[in-house]
Amino acid sequence: MKMRKPFTCLLVFWCCLGWNSGISQQLDHVQGEVLIQLASGEDPWDLLSDLPVLNGSASPAQPLRAIAPSQRIWLLSFDHTSVNEMLLLAKLRSDERVQAAQFNHFLQSR
């Protein structure tokens, strides 16, 4: 009977530990990628050359490719280990040449 109590406590501990790890935060976007929609007539290279220096990086992001050229939607790439992604996203959103900016989120079935 004395052996059951420690075993039960250990079992409860491991169950709680396993349950807690299931509710941890999961990454919901591709690190180092941002999608932007530019205003009509704007160029992503001009926009990025005008961005202020972030964390010592003179060019914090580079255009990868146009996702939807007719809608002026571009995929940008940056080094997420040296650039604060939240700061970069805020700078892009505050620029008048950018109509929308968001992280490149993973697609999920609903």
Please, how many helices?
3
Count of the domains: 1
Which class best fits the helix and strand makeup? alpha+beta
* CATH level-two architecture: 2-Layer Sandwich
Q: What is the strand tally?
A: 4
Large-scale geometry: elongated
The succession of helices and strands, N to C, reads HEHEEHE
Mean pLDDT: 82
Describe the structure.
- The chain has helices at residues 4-21, 44-50, 85-94; strands at 29-38, 62-68, 73-77, 98-105.
- 13% of the residues are buried.
- The chain is of the alpha+beta class and 110 residues long.
- The longest helix has 18 residues, at 4-21.
- It starts with a helix and ends in a 5-residue tail after the last strand.
- The chain has three helices and four strands, in the order H-E-H-E-E-H-E.
Question: What layout of secondary structure does this protein have?
Answer:
Blueprint: H1 4-21, E1 29-38, H2 44-50, E2 62-68, E3 73-77, H3 85-94, E4 98-105
Antiparallel strand pairs: 1-3, 1-4, 2-3
Short description:
This protein has 110 residues and is α+β, with helices and mostly antiparallel strands. The protein is 32% helix and 27% strand.
Tags for this entry?
about 110 residues; alpha+beta; Alpha-Beta Plaits; 3 helices; 4 strands; about 30% helix
